[in-house]
Amino acid sequence: NAGVTQTPKFRVLKTGQSMTLLCAQDMNHEYMYWYRQDPGMGLRLIHYSVGEGTTAKGEVPDGYNVSRLKKQNFLLGLESAAPSQTSVYFCASSLGPRAEAFFGQGTRLTVV
Amino acid sequence: GEDVEQSLFLSVREGDSSVINCTYTDSSSTYLYWYKQEPGAGLQLLTYIFSNMDMKQDQRLTVLLNKKDKHLSLRIADTQTGDSAIYFCAEIPFSGGYNKLIFGAGTRLAVHP
């Protein structure tokens, strides 16, 4: 019973490098979210998806892109990493907008 | 706006009650949530309340909602060391088409002997 799985768990990038974070859920959830967590700022929504093939911007979308080609996967891309993107990234999924959101374990990303 | 505000820290003695407060901005939010994050882990849903309720009790947890002041609180009775965690208040605002789950900054609860 995997739930929400994020890969990788840790990553160090150099400024300007690109990478993709993968989120996979096995609960057949429609809604998926990407958040970043920074000290004193809580979780801020980057992008979200309300179903396969759909994506929408959250509170802090700049510098990130997402794709939801398959219902179970939600990818977060950084095209040109910046030190300001150093953070812990969390993926979550839910059956619907008011249903319980299930979170992955997080990805700690450091951009140097 | 979509700001959800919480105080950042709370320290209580083991066995006392803890009260964590939250203010939200969207009066049309129909569901309000409390999530818990333990060290090194993701968030887990603790409890929630519908906007047509004033209070919800679930074992040691009591949620109070004051819609007029847009104020939400979580009371933990008989606080234990295992309750030490970060607690997040969350809402689903109308401004996001009721699709976005928005969190506050989180309150770090420290329980000491």
Question: How would you characterize the overall build of this protein?
Answer:
The complex is a heterodimer of chains A (about 110) and B (about 110). Chain A is mainly beta and about 110 residues long. In chain A, about 0% of the residues lie in helices and about 50% in strands. In chain A, strands 2, 4, 5, 6, 9, 10 and 11 form a 7-stranded mixed β-sheet that branches. In chain A, strands 1-3-8-7 form a 4-stranded antiparallel β-sheet, with no helix packed on it. Chain A is globular. Chain B has about 110 residues and is mostly beta strands. In chain B, strands 2, 4, 5, 9, 10 and 11 form a 6-stranded mixed β-sheet that branches. Chain B has a 5-stranded antiparallel β-sheet with strand order 1-3-8-7-6, with no helix packed on it. Chain B is globular. The mean pLDDT of chain B is about 90.
Topology of this protein?
The complex is a heterodimer of chains A (about 110) and B (about 110).
Chain A: E1 4-7, E2 10-13, E3 19-25, E4 31-38, E5 42-49, E6 56-57, E7 65-67, E8 73-78, E9 87-94, E10 102-103, E11 107-111
Parallel strand pairs in A: 2-11
Antiparallel strand pairs in A: 1-3, 3-8, 4-5, 4-9, 5-6, 7-8, 9-10, 9-11
Chain B: E1 4-6, E2 9-13, E3 18-24, E4 31-37, E5 43-50, E6 55-58, E7 61-66, E8 71-76, E9 85-91, E10 102-103, E11 107-112
Parallel strand pairs in B: 2-11
Antiparallel strand pairs in B: 1-3, 3-8, 4-5, 4-9, 6-7, 7-8, 9-10, 9-11
